[in-house]
User: What shape does this take?
Amino acid sequence: PQAWLIKGIKETEAENYGMALECLCNALEGFRKFGMTEYAILTLKYIAFAQDCSYNLAGAIDANNRALVLCLQNEDEEGQMEIAGDLYRLSRLVGDVESATRYAALMDSVLNKSSDLRTRFEYCRQKGKEARRQNQLLLAEKWFLKGKSIAEQDTSSTSNKYLISIDLSSLYMSAGRYE
Assistant: This one.
């Protein structure tokens, strides 16, 4: 199944989404057969991404929901946060306010019970991006700064520090703050 996953990822990067989905579905079948849940979650995330890029939002939502179920079963808080954030975004795109509210509540719940810095960071980043999309720049700054504080505490990941710096820089540039 790993070979199918790698080929599916490469096809996704090449924007050959039909072939990517075929490969990824084969990978998913193999990972399920061997009980490799973490790889199944990863594969479902790639399937959701390929569906989203193909403008099949219903397919993206379905794949993400299946990945979310596996994350809940495995108590994978970081995965829950990431997938709930994507489902929140997709639900808003299709105008499903009820589902968007449910996924926002799930993200809040995961955050409240999580001590994992990466999960907390991802939540702050999601909230900052959402506030920015709604042109609530001060609120976005608040969330990004909170994420920056968390990233500075997390010694296991330097990439989060760069990600949040990019988010803040982009926010400040769009607000005309060049200091």
Observations:
- The chain has a mean pLDDT of 92.
- Residues 128 and 140 are 4 Å apart (CA to CA).
